[in-house]
UniProtKB/TrEMBL annotation, chain A:
Record flagged with keyword Nucleotidyltransferase: no
GO molecular function: 2 iron, 2 sulfur cluster binding; metal ion binding; oxidoreductase activity
Organism, as annotated: Donghicola mangrovi
The keyword Iron is annotated on this UniProt entry: yes
Keywords carried by this UniProt record: 2Fe-2S, Flavoprotein, Iron, Iron-sulfur, Metal-binding, Oxidoreductase
PROSITE patterns the UniProt entry points to: 2FE2S_FER_2, FAD_FR
InterPro entries for this protein: 2Fe-2S_ferredoxin-like_sf, 2Fe-2S_ferredoxin-type, Beta-grasp_dom_sf, DmmA-like_N, FAD-bd_FR_type, FNR_nucleotide-bd, MRET, Riboflavin_synthase-like_b-brl
Domain 2Fe-2S ferredoxin-type residues, every copy: 228-315
All residue ranges annotated as the FAD-binding FR-type domain in the record: 1-106
Pfam family, one: DmmA-like_N
The name this protein goes by in its record: Oxidoreductase
TrEMBL record, chain B:
InterPro entries (UniProt xref): HODM_asu-like
Protein name as annotated: DUF3445 domain-containing protein
TrEMBL record, chain C:
Source domain of life: Bacteria
Protein known as: Uncharacterized protein
Gene Ontology MF, one: 2 iron, 2 sulfur cluster binding
SUPFAM superfamilies (alphabetical): Ferredoxin reductase-like, C-terminal NADP-linked domain (SSF52343)
Keyword Metal-binding: yes
Occurrences of domain Dimethylamine monooxygenase subunit DmmA-like C-terminal (ranges): 139-182
Keywords, ordered alphabetically: 2Fe-2S, Flavoprotein, Iron, Iron-sulfur, Metal-binding, Oxidoreductase
Coiled-coil ranges from the UniProt annotation: none
NCBIfam families associated with the record: mono_DmmA_fam
Taxonomic placement: Bacteria, Pseudomonadati, Pseudomonadota, Alphaproteobacteria, Rhodobacterales
Domain Dimethylamine monooxygenase subunit DmmA-like N-terminal: 9-128
Claim: Plastid is one of the keywords in the record: no
Native organism: Donghicola mangrovi
InterPro entries found in the cross-reference section: DmmA-like_C, DmmA-like_N, FNR_nucleotide-bd
């Protein structure tokens, strides 16, 4: 995987919980351009461990002068966002991946309907730039609890096709009204909490939208959980996965090679076979089908955890 | 550096020829004495100086003549270049990739000056100088895909990613191994490759698709594929099959060395930045058996590969009817 | 008429399944006279399916039209052939919104042509259901002259535009809505295999 070492040029507070980081090439060289909805993966070294989280790019995809990401502080997370909020200062160097996109716009669409919940606004911020450049019709619906939490607000243009729904002010998002009667060839995209993604998918299904027109991005940082142990089938090696560590990070720390890309359970790259399982795999990914998850023969180590007596990986 | 470009034809009198240097650098595709489908992927570009892998888009002695042949094909059948409307952005991405690469790798042949979206492109071998506005198709004589691929050797497919699949939604295909872009445009990866025998059952395309979906920006890859062609013909399209088909039956023990060509496809895979589409250039290299056999190791290996190949693949690769003559010709070299 | 059973084929060849009701979703239904039976079966399985349906029958037999008229609330559109059905379907799609379902039933040629038309109008492929009824005849595109020959029942067949003798491939283009026909005697002009009925 291609890595870039970038300098933190500017850190801006967008809301009490969200900071924006602007990253530039140390020599001022232009950075690779990207497509709306793309993300980068940030390396966060801490002692022996390298934690890696993926963040959507929020800047103009056609502007290679710098990358911007917005990070929400998750006090109950496993430390990735806290690292960004407390350990990273302007002038620091960060190692990041080249941009990748698991949430691209379907440019065939006659119209794009974008639905964001909370920090889920981030991938749409780069998509809006792209849609404006390409002059494709869209509407954006952005739901947040309060104006102070709506970090994306300062980054959004004031335009008639951008709708804000602040629940604290009694303006709730009516998904039925949003989705009903959209023109043929519309696509809907959702990013935000799982509940919102499910609600949009359910509403679209009720209105008989075909699944190919429904897109979502739910990948988030890996969840913390109870520590657990795994065995590597080929070597018999036992590894302990800490509470604030993902299985993928534990494998990397033990130098067990596993391919990866998004580290958010969406891209499928780290899919790993399970050769023995006595217990319950806690699947947190969006890659394996429900049947595959139920079979307990595959695991996505970037996101998923385990509870039980024995988990042996086919590595 | 001075460079020589051959004056030669790929149809009619077929004056196509390889210099000793072109033979030396020919991308011989077999690394074993047997052939079976394989994915055989390596990072690209990257290879010894002077090799066909050295640069992103290899420019060789056939460049000018190949572009003239493409122009003839397009004049007869403009549908060899197609781009569904949502693929224009991918066309611009490809234009940028090729112009930037060629100007960097062959500064004596190509120059690109960029001032914001005002671009100035000079292609010396083809005598082209163009000022245009990037992302504004009205400032180019063709769409971006057609414009740049009229100046770049090899076929080009642009694949759109959706529903965990790749869709052949644009391309410039004038030197294909017997498939029709006009028919296949808009197909997904499995539909497009549906006529390829055996491979689906072997899981080849599932693996290939999985690989392609994982190709990321800033990291391109390549693989080699091959087939056999009678005469150095680029346009072996199904559209014109009734015109070139009879040539396939013109092979004799006397002429097989000069008329039978090994056709190697250097396929590369690129994730494009703005469109997130995949570019799939398919560069074709042709070398006749006589020239190949100037390398004794190639002669020996090609003999074994073509002698022992699965009959279904011999048929699919289009040389089953000439297999006996070819193998007997090659046997003469491997006994030495 | 018994349903045709198709032999297993390659990935580009369309497959067909019995129509399944999407309830009272807005719908456009098109059938030829053989396919009308499939629509009648669909309506019998769920009468709500006609609530917001526009129905187009191509050259229907009078008894089928009469039975259909009894099942539905809105008038059934009829057209004499596929050529006249196209503009009508296009017009119905022009006012359609997301959620609209398309049900097609009948010959492969008709369904292929209308699928191509509907997707070009923006209807997603997965909003279209197809059920094959009637003839196994194919809609073929000549790869050489690009002309379409309808209702091809033999392999090889003569292109109705350029006159080349073409063999029938299973390779199918949804964009064009047709199978591919390729010159059968390209390498050996005049050597043409015996004509056979197309195997479904």
């Amino acid at each position: 995987m291609k890595k870039l070492t970038l300098r933190v040029a500017e850190i801006t507070a967008l809301s009490p919980l969200v900071k924006r980081f602007r990253l530039i090439h140390p020599d001022g060289a232009p950075l690779p351009l990207f497509s709306g909805g793309a993300h980068i993966t940030v390396d966060m070294p801490e002692g022996d461990l390298i934690r890696r989280n993926s963040y959507s790019l929020v800047s103009n995809p056609y502007d290679g002068a710098g990358y911007e990401i917005a990070v929400r502080r998750e006090d109950r997370g496993r430390g990735g966002s806290l690292y960004m909020h407390t350990r990273v200062s302007e002038g620091d160097l960060l190692t990041v991946s080249a941009p990748k996109n698991l949430f691209q716009l379907d440019l065939r669409a006659r119209k794009h309907v974008l639905i964001a919940g909370g920090i889920g606004i981030t991938p749409f911020l780069s998509q809006l730039h792209q849609l404006d450049i390409l002059q494709q019709p869209y509407e954006l619906h952005y739901a947040a609890h309060s104006r102070s939490e709506a970090a994306g607000l300062t980054l959004l243009p004031d335009a008639p096709h951008i709708h804000l729904h602040i629940s604290e002010e009694g303006s709730r998002m009516d998904l039925g009204a949003i989705l009903d009667g959209q023109p043929l060839g519309s696509h809907v995209y959702t990013c935000g909490p799982d509940g919102l993604i499910r609600a949009v998918a359910d509403q679209a299904a009720r209105l008989n939208w075909p699944t190919s027109a429904i897109h979502s991005e739910a990948f988030t940082a890996p969840p913390p959980g109870e520590p657990f142990e795994v065995t590597i089938a080929s070597t018999g090696q036992h590894l302990r996965v800490g509470a604030d560590q993902s299985l993928l990070e534990a494998l990397e720390a033990a130098h067990v090679p596993v391919d990866y890309s998004c580290r958010g359970g969406a891209c499928g790259r780290c899919e790993t076979g399970v050769s023995a399982c006595n217990g319950q795999i806690l699947h947190h990914d969006h890659w394996l089908s429900p049947d595959e998850q139920a079979s307990q023969t595959k695991i996505m180590p970037c996101m998923s955890r385990f509870k039980g007596a024995r988990l042996e990986l086919d590595l | 550096m001075t460079r020589h470009f051959n004056t030669e034809t790929f149809r009619g009198d077929y004056t196509y020829h390889n210099s000793p240097e072109a033979i030396r650098r020919f991308p011989f595709p077999f690394d074993q004495d047997t052939y079976t489908y394989s994915v055989n992927i390596a990072p690209h570009p990257g290879g010894p100086t002077g090799s066909t892998f050295e640069f992103a888009f290899d420019v060789d002695e056939h460049y000018v003549s190949e572009m003239q042949d493409r122009a003839i094909t397009l004049a007869e059948d403009p549908n060899r270049c197609q781009s569904l409307p949502h693929m224009e952005l991918a066309g611009w991405d490809l234009l940028e990739l090729i112009m930037v690469s060629k100007a960097r790798d062959y500064p004596d042949l190509f120059t690109l000056n960029r001032d914001g979206d005002q671009w100035h492109w000079i292609n010396r071998p083809l005598g082209i100088e163009q000022r245009f506005t990037f992302l504004d198709p009205a400032t180019l004589p063709y769409g971006p895909l057609e414009y740049i691929t009229r100046q770049t050797q090899g076929d080009f497919a642009l694949l759109h990613e959706r529903d965990r699949n790749l869709w052949l939604d644009a391309g410039m295909i004038t030197s294909q191994a017997d498939w029709s872009l006009d028919f296949d445009v808009g197909m997904n990866f499995f539909e497009w490759h549906a006529p390829v025998p055996k491979a689906r059952q072997m899981g080849v395309f599932d693996k290939a698709l999985k690989f392609l979906l994982a190709v990321e920006q800033q990291q391109a890859y390549r693989r080699l594929n091959w087939t056999m062609t009678v005469n150095p013909r680029l346009d072996t399209s199904p559209e014109n099959y009734h015109k070139w088909g009879p040539e396939k039956r013109s092979i004799t023990p006397q002429n097989v060395g000069q008329k039978q060509f090994l056709r190697v496809e250097l396929q590369t895979f690129w994730r494009l930045p703005r469109s997130n589409a995949l570019a799939f250039p398919i560069r074709c290299y042709l070398c006749c058996l006589e020239d190949l056999c100037t390398n004794p190791e190639w002669a020996r290996r090609l003999h074994l590969v073509l002698r022992d190949i699965d009959p279904v693949l011999a048929d699919y690769k289009g040389f089953a009817v000439n297999q006996k003559t070819i193998v007997e010709y090659l046997a003469g070299f491997s006994c030495v | 008429m018994p349903t045709v059973e198709f032999s297993p084929s390659i990935d580009s060849r369309p497959t067909y399944a019995p129509l399944k009701s999407h309830g009272s979703a807005p719908a456009i239904m098109v059938a030829d006279t053989a396919g009308a039976d499939a629509l009648l079966d669909l309506m019998a399985s769920d009468s709500a399916v006609t609530d917001k349906a526009q129905i187009v029958l191509i050259a229907p037999a009078s008894d089928k039209l009469a039975r259909m008229d009894l099942m539905v609330k809105t008038p059934v559109h009829t057209t004499p052939d596929l050529d006249t059905a196209g503009p009508l379907v296009r017009q119905l799609l022009s006012t359609a919104r997301m959620g609209t379902q398309m049900y097609l039933a009948g010959s492969e040629g008709m369904m292929g042509a209308l699928c191509a038309l509907a997707t070009a109008c923006g209807l997603p492929m997965d909003a279209i259901q197809t059920e094959h009824r009637g003839t196994a005849a194919r809609r073929m595109q000549c790869v050489h002259c690009k002309g379409i020959t309808e209702d091809v029942t033999t392999d090889p067949f003569e292109c109705s535009h350029c006159g080349l003798t073409l063999f029938v491939r299973d390779h199918f283009s949804r964009r064009i809505g047709a199978f591919q026909g390729v010159c059968v005697d390209a390498e050996t002009p005049g050597l043409i295999p015996t004509t056979q009925e197309i195997r479904p």
